[in-house]
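for the writeup, i need someone to sanity check this before i put it in the appendix. the sequnce is what the collaborator sent (i think, or maybe the updated version? ugh). structure was predicted straight from it, no edits. if anything looks off just tell me and ill rerun, i have time this weekend
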Amino acid sequence: MSFLAQESLSEQIAQHLANQIIRGESLAGDRIQELRIASELEVSRGSVREALLILERRHLIDILPRRGAVVKDMSEAHVRSLYELTQVLLGLVVRKAIKVMREDDLDPFIATIHDLQMRLDERDVDAFFNASFRFLELAYPFSRNPFVEDIMTNLQPAVQRAYYMALHIDPEEMKECLSFFKAIIETIFRRDVRSALEIIREFAEHQSTLVQESLVRARQIEVAWGARRKR
């Protein structure tokens, strides 16, 4: 696989590696070897190194002394902290959106809701996942706050990693997510800040719990399997 240098080669490499982490093709603790990546993608090690710095800033990898780049662990504490922060930031975005949005600003969001419904009907999890983040990316600029928008953009890959997991844990989770997006649009339309913040809080707590419980079960299975192999 090779990349053409466009706006930022390192950004393209970072996105390629991020997709592997988000979709679970690269697991927590896996090493990301600069030389191998550079050879596979036919790019320089310098570009790969820049891409790894981007991934570290986006909370997908850790760059450790003597070990290099490794995929970031996804513990219950990590997930809980991630959703707590996302809840606060998304609340800021929606609070401001309610103040500044005009009615015709809602049209792209409504179109995305229709797309999400179609993907749900088709049971197309990957397309539903992509449409979900198109919805959120439409919302970020309405914060009218470049600091919030920058933080949300850098935090998004970590959120995508947890969200992708949630969609694959429970077949009904797409319905939960669609209901969430619909409810947010309705509260924006009604200019109902209090309801919007409560909906965001409930959804963040629901999905955080879902992912954390899955991680606990996976660890219990791993421990039990390890104990069985030692017998």
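The mean pLDDT is 92. The chain has two domains: 9-71, 76-219.
thx in advance!!
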